[in-house]
Amino acid sequence: MLVMAELKAEPYEVIIERSRGWLSIDWREFWEYRDLLVLLVQRDVTSRYKQTLLGPLWFILQPVLTAMVFAIIFGRIAGIPTDGIPGPLFYLCGLLGWTYFSQNLTNAGASFVNNAHLFGKVYFPRLIVPVAIVLSNLVAFAIQLGPFLLFLGYYKLCTQDASVVHLTWKLLLVPLPLLQVVALSLGVSLLMSAATARYRDLIHLNQFLIQIWMFATPIFYPLSKVPPQWQWVIWANPMSVPVEAFRICLLGRGTLGTAEIVISAASTVLLLAFGIAAFQKVERTMIDSV
Amino acid sequence: MKAIVEVDRLSKLYALGGIGPTSLRQSLESLFGRFRGDRPAAASEAIPDDRAGPEPNTFWGIKDISFSVAPGAVVGIIGRNGAGKSTLLKILSRITEPTSGRAILRGRVVSLLEVGTGFHNELTGRENIFLNGAILGMKRTEVAARFDEIVDFAEVGKFIDTPVKRYSSGMFVRLAFAVAAHLEPEILLIDEVLAVGDAGFQKKCLGKMGQVASEQGRTVFFVSHNMGAVRSLCEEAILIEGGRVVRTGAPADVISHYLSASSPKDSEVEGQIWWNGSADAPHTDDLALRGIRLLGPQGVPQAAFEADKPIRIEINYTVLRRLRGARFVVSLMTQEGEVAFCATDHLFQQETQSPGRYQSTCVLPAGLLNRRNYLVNIQCDIPGERYLLPGAEYLGFTVSGAGNQASTFPEPWPGVVCPKIAWTVEAQT
Question: CB distance B92–A50 less than 8 Å?
Answer without folding.
Answer: no
